[in-house]
Amino acid sequence: MRYETYDAVVIGGGAAGMAAAVTLSKRGKSVIMFEREPQLGGILLQCIHNGFGLQEFKEELTGPEYAERFTQQVASSPITVKLNTTVLELQQKDDKKVVIACNSKEGILEIETKAIVLAMGCRERNRGNINTPGTRPSGVFTAGLAQRLVNIDGYIPGKEVVIVGSGDIGLIMARRMTWVGAKVKAVIEIQPNPAGLTRNIVQCLNDYNIPLYLSHIVSEIRGKDRVESVCVTPLEDGRPNEDKSFAIACDTVLYSVGLVPDNEITRSINLNLNPETGGAWVDANLMTKIPGIFSCGNVLHVHDLVDYVSEEAMRCGNFAADYIEGKTLQCPIQLKAGGNVKYVLPNAMNLEEPSKMYLRPLIVKNSATLEVRCNNTVVKSIKLRHVQPSEMISYTFDPQKLGAEELLELNTHNSLEISVS
Amino acid sequence: MDSIYDVVIVGAGVSGSAIARKLSSYALNVALIDKEVDVSFGVSKANSGIIHGGFHHKSSTLKSRLECLGNRMFDQLKEELHFPFSRCGILVVAFSDEEMRTVEQLYRQGVANHAVGIELCNRERLLSLEPKLNADVVGGLHAPNGGIIEPYRFVFALVESAVRNGVKLLTDWHLVGVTEQENHYLLRNERGEEIISRYVVNAAGVHADTVSKLFNAEDFTISLRKGEEFLMDRNAKAYPSKVLFPVPSAHSKGTLVIPTVEGTTMIGPTSEPTTCKDDLATSKENFEKVFYNARRLVPVVSERDVITSFTGVRPLVESDDFYIAISEQSPRLIQVAGIQSPGLTASPAIAEYVKELLKKAGLSMLEKTHYDPYIEQVPRLRDLSPLEADALIAQNPAYGDIVCRCEKISEGEIISAIRHGHTTLDGIKFYTRAQMGRCQGGFCTHRILKIIERETGLTIAEITKRGSNSYIASEQVGNLAVEDNHAL
Amino acid sequence: MNKEIPMTCIACPIGCNLTLFTQDKTLIRVEGNRCPRGETYAKDEYIAPKRIVTATVRVTGGLQNRAPVKTDQPIPKADVPRLLDKLYRLSFSAPITCGQVLYQEEGYAVIATLSVKDIESTSP
Fold first, then answer.
1. How far is C10 from chain A (nearest CA, A)?
2. DSSP track, A138-201
3. Which of B454, B477, B480, B485 to mutate to test the interface with C (most CBs of C within 10 A)?
4. Are both A230 and A270 inside the same structural domain?
5. Among A269, A271, A7, A5, CA closest to A114
6. A48/C98 touch (CB, cutoff 8 Å), yes or no
7. How does DSSP assign B401-463, residue by residue?
8. Would you call A178 an interface residue with chain B, using a CB distance cutoff of 8 Å?
């Protein structure tokens, strides 16, 4: 067994983990990173398509290239990286935090630390979660698993594919499967609007004449040993119209039906999770309700741009460093989601410094308005060119720029509400 | 051709496997055959894992007798075979006075069957035994001798023990033809391979009627009842401390709320007739019905906790009892058919009973002096303390590499499964629990494929979910020409 | 012959629904765009649609069996399937550096987008 002490432990070596670790290290803190896979990079390594880094590096990069920008920074830092290592448990006793992990070379590692950064990313929702009826043949995959098999292992999951869900992962896989010679017969989307970016609808579906069935569900999977077909049913007024069901012959079904922040190892310390995001409750320091435990990246809330993940993780690294130095600011102002907002992060802010907020709108609109209200009074209003649910909005709120009266309101009511209209 | 077997057991489900192990303690040449690529892939695959309390069936039935005998054997079996088992107890709850009448009848049956510790409970007693119960219960029954096991590990362990003691396991061996000769049977499979046996035990589950016909033996029909069950996350609030039953109906024991021995919660099973032996489809109607019924027992049951669902098929014979007897048409054939609930519970007693029938049918049996009832205990990383885990990893580094993070299964356990003959994704799933967690194989499947590839030499294209045509990924990138199907 | 071709602009997330008016295969005018980028996009897409291609190639002697690659610029859309079939037949030996040119065609190169270490490599 190894017992070691570090200033900070970063759990997860993907985009968020790497950026947070590098930032902590630059602040002079001793950092140890735990990563399950044999290399750093996380999910970026299997996202071999383009579209990353436009904000962060002002270049259009593929996932692996984006990852490599950070793995190089980690490599040239004194960060201790433990690959092929899985965190088993977190322990919290008084002020002490302990992370227990294991790998095949060293056995069990028990690390005592001052700050923990949770950067474990997400897992995919699967057939079981949405409970598609039918048989249990082979050939049913989550889109991410199929992506891994194709892009990293070099195996094609099947030749005739139906994709459930029009989120970006599903759309990217529609193109990827086509590009390895499979035939994608349809993308089935339960909502009346596509879930992914328009760019992906055009370049992944339209380019290959792949039909997109909006307001449809896969109502059954058929096949004895391997998938043989799916039954597709249209929704009318939100309910399946069985009479209009039709079958699509296929040997593979890919599920792209959402991501869930993977906070399972935090159960041992009873971390407060936010049901709207699936991630931890955090304040403007990206600190959870347990002092010294921070969260960033997809494990905090599902991002659409990795650039935002890196930015959030860098801020998180700085806040964790501040904590280690005893400089953490209290966050007494509650932040709530108002009209047309699914969630807003963080859940609490302070009044001394500007807070970067992230929120997800529930509507699709051009020339939309974002409003910050205190006790029903609008204290800030900004125009947004275009909003849609699949695009996260980020907005920096500076309480120092408020008028004296508004500041007084805020100090009295201690809560702000964000809405979009 | 191999030497003549004394006994061939057709079907490596819980019955066949228990019988194989029992016979392996005698100086006999025994073979256990199954048409699937792995054992426990038929009826026994979708078992709820309940060790029943011996009160559901009339004492006059064979199933009741064997249930009660079998129930008592599980502590010893666990000691020898190391499968997870917990005698947590069973509660049957009533919501009305009318239902209480049925409960009282079950209680009387339990008493007649010598069910140890069975008690009638009033509302307060019930709620103190299980606080998560619906407060509307009026009373019920508590059977402390009931419990839960992990059914696949049980069957795998029975087979392992049988093989360890000399039983020949022949999987992917589909019996299609039988020729009866003077004092033995010639058994032929799909590939034309033949084996000879003096006695045969027909424990072929849903196919027992088909097998019986191959022997020109009794002409009975296996009728089928399908059952669907839902598996919930191990963190579900609904996890009870005992197996919870409603009052049974004519056809079934009802929708149960089952605390699995692994810590997840299962609800179900449903019970509806079906005609197709391979019909394992789940349905939306069942989902709603099951959740409604489960919530009646435990109000905090929530659909949001569902990880997956699966179905199984129960084989029934006309009498609705177990049909375990020496065939009257073919006197060296032992019929073991219609083994529906409480088959798992009864299985060790079924094995005893079949052994006696074989004796009666003329097979002389000498006990082996060197029979070893124990099997190797495979360590499971997640059950160990950090110090124990560290020691294990030092000895065998593969235990330090976690493959399935949802269930904390290490590579060492996966390798162990493969070395015990489980080389399909489902076989490994049932042996180790890898792929059974909340991500349902999303993260670990590609790793398991690579481990199987490395350990067996099978290519990923050859690896299947459960044999036959259930391939995973049959082509490598570059094998398929990229078709030019762009829009213009 | 006059034709009206619908197209979705992807220059920005708004995704304007464009209509391209053509006469005898010549693009006469574009409607539906909210900004000049839409018109540029429509012209390029109509006259010479191009795409960046990403794929993986086989690697021998490396810590990984496949390396991700991309074209260093967009290539004619019609050439994509042929290039893919070509790339899948190639094999490269480790080590490979991110950015390394692995293959070239007239007008563009295919570069590695991930470094793959030699399997003998002892560096962390």
1. 5
2. B-EEEHHHHHHIIIII-EE--SEEEEE--SHHHHHHHHHHHHTT-EEEEEE-SSSS-SS-HHHI
3. B477
4. no
5. A7
6. no
7. SEEETTTTEEHHHHHHHHHTT--SHHHHHHHH-TT-STTTTTTTHHHHHHHHHHHH---GGG-
8. yes
- Domains in chain C, CATH or no CATH each: 2-47 (2.20.25), 54-112 (3.10.530.10)
Q: Does C32 contact chain A (CB < 8 Å)?
A: no
Contacts of C80 in chain B (CB under 8 A): 482, 486
Closest residue to C54, CB basis, from A49, A197, A202: A49
- Mean pLDDT, residues A76-101 taken together: 93
Closest by Cβ to A64, choosing from C13, C14, C114: C114
Q: Are residues A247 and A342 in the same domain?
A: no
Catalytic site positions of B: 52
Claim to verify: residue A381 and residue A233 sit in the same structural domain:
no
Residue among A81, A252, A289 nearest A178 (CA): A252
If asked whether residues A298 and A356 sit together in one domain, one would say no
What confidence tens digit (pLDDT) does each residue in C58-105 have? 999 999 999 999 999 999 999 999 999 999 999 999 999 999 999 999
Structural domains of chain B sorted by starting position, each given as residue range(s) with its CATH number in brackets: 1-85+149-221+317-376 (3.50.50.60), 86-148+223-315 (3.30.9.10), 381-462 (1.10.10.1100)
In this structure, are A101 and A176 located in the same domain?
A: no
C-alpha–C-alpha distance, residues B151 and B85, integer Å: 9
Sorting pLDDT into bands at 50, 70 and 90, what band is B2? Answer: low
Domain that holds residue A357: 335-420
Least confident of A128-137, B152-161, B346-355: A128-137
Q: What does the CA dihedral B65, B67, B69, B74 come to, rounded to 10 degrees?
A: 180
- CB-nearest to B481 from C56, C77, C85 is C85
Domain count for chain A: 3
Output the pTM of the full model: 0.92
Q: Does B477 touch chain C (CB under 8 A)?
A: yes
* Structure confidence at residue A402 as a pLDDT band (50, 70, 90): confident
Together in a domain, A81 and A195: no
Q: What is the mean pLDDT of residues B415-433?
A: 95
- Does residue A352 surpass a pLDDT of 90? no
A372-399 pLDDT per residue, tens: 998 888 888 999 988 988 888 999 988 8
- Comparing CB atoms, the residue among C77, C81, C89 nearest residue B478 is C89
The answer to whether B446 contacts A144, with C-beta atoms less than 8 Å apart, is no
Q: What CATH number is attached to the domain comprising A92?
A: 3.50.50.60
Q: With an 8 Å Cβ cutoff, are A110 and B464 in contact?
A: no
- Beta carbons of B425 and B445 less than 8 angstroms apart: yes
Give the minimum alpha-carbon distance from C56 to chain B in angstroms, rounded to a whole number.
9
Mean local confidence (pLDDT), A83-89: 96
> What's the pLDDT score for residue B488?
30
Tell me whether B487 touches chain C (CB under 8 Å): no
Instruction: Give yes or no: residues A93 and A52 share one domain.
Output: yes
Contact A181 B482 (CB under 8 A): yes
Q: Do C58 and B478 touch (CB under 8 A)?
A: yes
Q: Which among A257, A275, A299 is the end of a domain?
A: A257
Residue A131 shares a structural domain with residue A249: yes
Contact C84 A179 (CB under 8 A): yes
| Contacts with A416 (C-beta within 8 Å, 6 or more apart), sequence order | A333, A334, A335, A336, A349, A372, A373, A374, A379, A397, A410
Look at residue A117 and tell me whether its pLDDT is greater than 80.
Answer: yes
